[in-house]
Write a structure and sequence with these properties.
The complex is a heterodimer of chains A (406) and B (141).
Chain A lengths: L5 E2 L10 H7 L16 H21 L6 E4 L2 H15 L6 E5 L4 H12 L4 E5 L9 H7 L4 E5 L13 H10 L3 E5 L18 E5 L10 E5 L28 H39 L3 E4 L9 E6 L4 H7 L3 E2 L15 H5 L4 H4 L2 E5 L6 H20 L2 H7 L13
Parallel strand pairs in A: 1-11, 3-4, 3-5, 5-6, 6-7
Antiparallel strand pairs in A: 2-8, 7-8, 9-10, 10-12
Chain B lengths: L4 H8 L14 E8 L4 E9 L6 E9 L2 H14 L4 H5 L3 H8 L6 H21 L16
Antiparallel strand pairs in B: 1-2, 2-3
Classes of the chains: A alpha/beta (406), B alpha+beta (141).
Chain lengths: 406, 141
């Protein structure tokens, strides 16, 4: 019997890896210097630590250390990238191409620019697996397009987009390519050169680092990409992001990237085994369960499933000793089903029935077995309580029913 | 979202889950809500044709914990009540009993509608001249 409650929501956040925590600890107290203090050893020590972290992050994504800009997290990185590009290149154009299943940090940055009259945005659809078609990207480009923003892997259904292909199209057309790689960097191999990425957002807390720190990769060469700063101040980070550096957090982000790179291959094999076991266990024991997301082009730790005839929130309530999520953590306070699942075209009914399992570094096989049992039992219990399950078993086509609600 | 103890109790130990036979002439069935809205409640009431008292109730609900709790509570609430009394039950009574937060008020509205729909259905089969109550919009409030 595993220790309860079980955490299986690793797309939302992850615990800090003990190796990361250990590296961070001295920077809270004895090594507390300001990395911008150029005239004493406290500052030099902090600057050295920051530079080491820059190197660790750059190595993970095959970038140069000076191309890494530290931020407060991926939301800030996305905002800085999108608004920064649109502002800097306003003489060149004002059109953005993105997609409907992006994170709110991207979508709402685009909407803010639209509202302010600073940009026009094309929101590309995705196929039934949640994948963007690179051809759609190509067709959406106009003479006014200055930015393509497509995420590396989706946070809800785990689908991995054909990023290298999209990047190639961007570079052929001389358009800046921003990629929100929060769920991918440190999880699957990401290479800004191979993938033709110009701007890339990542976050520490999704890869066993601390919350409140992230980075934005800004391509320096081939081509050099420019962004306008979105915050005024001391001109830190080569003028792109002012504000005293969060040295402790940055040290943690660097170490988290180093560990992630070192263990990635082995960790992915293990996560794939666990994920496939969880998926097989659920699909063998329950009828009418549907996989959301791509069957193969998917993050190793992701499993998103719709349990027909069972409402997702009630299932979460039943799984009270297992932390999983329905929709995404950012939208779980609303009653609307996930916009990502809806975009796959599965229908609102199945969108209401979706659960996301996020396996991570510290999940065990015993936990997978326990969760499989709990999910199976709870889905069966709720289906016994579900009028829809009863009607379906009686052979009633639920789509033919005139529901008394508008 | 934090659930009240009463919602959790009804969710874990729902009262009167199940279905009555469809052919049973004394049973009125109300189905309200829609799958695409994330809530469907089926409420069945066995009503004595002489006394017009609700003698038994069953429910099945597709919906969140608060929707399940609202329908479970309603089956307890209506038992032993005359249909006129049951028709007068307001969703606010369900909200108060279960301590539903504002975002879950619609669950109580749906449960109130289910009572009206079930009694309306029963009346239809018993030649009652009164028209069935129009269900309100399921997601209001």
């Amino acid at each position: 019997m595993p220790k309860l409650p079980i955490y299986m929501d690793n797309h939302a956040t992850t615990p800090v890896d003990p190796r990361v925590l250990e590296t961070m600890l001295p920077y809270f107290s004895e090594k507390f210097g300001n990395a911008a203090s150029r005239n004493h050893s406290f500052g030099w020590e902090a600057e050295e630590a920051v530079d080491r972290a820059r190197g660790q992050i750059a190595q993970l994504i095959n970038a140069k250390p000076k191309e890494i800009i530290f931020t407060s997290g991926a939301t800030e990185s996305d905002n800085l990238a999108i608004k920064g590009v649109v502002e800097f290149y306003k003489e060149k154009g004002d059109h953005i191409v993105t997609c409907v299943t992006e994170h709110k940090a991207v979508l709402d940055s685009c909407r803010a620019l639209e509202r302010a009259g600073k940009a026009m945005v094309t929101y590309l659809p995705v196929d039934k697996y949640g994948m963007v078609d690179p051809d759609d990207v190509r067709k959406a480009l106009t003479d006014r397009t200055v930015l393509i923003s497509i995420m590396y892997a989706n946070n809800e259904v785990g689908t991995i987009h054909p990023i290298a292909e999209i990047g190639r199209i961007a570079h052929e057309r001389g358009v800046v390519f921003h990629c929100d790689a929060v769920q991918a960097a440190g999880k699957i191999p990401v290479d800004v050169d191979r993938d033709h990425i110009d701007l890339l957002a990542l976050s520490a807390h999704k890869i066993y680092g601390p919350k409140g720190v992230g980075a934005l990769y800004v391509r320096a060469k081939g081509p050099r990409v420019r962004i306008s700063p979105q915050m005024d101040g001391g001109g830190h980070e080569r003028g792109m992001r002012s504000g005293t550096l969060n040295v402790t957090g940055i040290v943690g982000l660097g170490k988290a990237c180093e560990v992630a790179g070192a263990v990635m291959a082995e960790e992915n094999r293990r996560l794939l085994d666990l994920r496939d076991k969880l998926q097989a266990g659920i699909f063998e024991r329950l009828d009418e369960v549907y996989l959301n997301g791509h069957p193969t082009e998917r993050l190793p730790g992701n499993l998103n499933v719709s349990f027909a005839y069972v409402e997702g929130e009630s299932l979460l309530m039943g799984l009270n000793d297992v932390a999983v999520s329905s929709g995404s953590a950012c939208t779980s306070a609303t009653l609307e089903p996930s916009y990502v699942i809806r975009a796959l075209g599965v229908g609102d009914e199945l969108a209401h029935s979706s659960i996301r399992f996020g396996l991570g570094r510290f999940n065990t096989e015993a936990e997978v077995d326990f969760v499989t049992d709990r999910v199976t039992r709870e889905v069966r219990r709720l289906r016994e309580m579900s009028p829809l399950y009863e009607m379906a078993r009686e052979g009633i086509d639920l789509k033919s029913v005139q529901w008394k609600a508008e | 979202m934090a659930y009240s103890d009463k919602v959790i109790d009804h969710y874990n130990n729902p009262r009167n889950v199940g279905s009555f036979g469809k052919a049973d002439a004394d049973v009125g069935t109300g189905i309200v809500g829609a799958p695409e809205c994330g809530d469907v409640m089926k409420l069945q009431l066995r009503i004595n044709p002489e006394s017009r008292v609700i003698e038994d109730a069953r429910f099945k609900t597709f919906g969140c914990g608060s929707a399940i709790a609202s329908s479970s509570y309603v089956t307890e609430l209506v038992k032993g009540k005359h249909i006129d009394e049951a028709m007068a039950i307001k969703n606010t009574a369900i909200v108060a009993e279960l301590n539903l937060p504002p975002v879950k008020i619609h669950c109580s509205v749906l449960a109130e509608d289910a009572i009206k729909a079930a009694i309306g259905d029963w009346k239809k089969h018993h030649g009652d001249a009164e028209p069935a109550a129009e269900p309100r919009r399921a997601r209001e409030g």
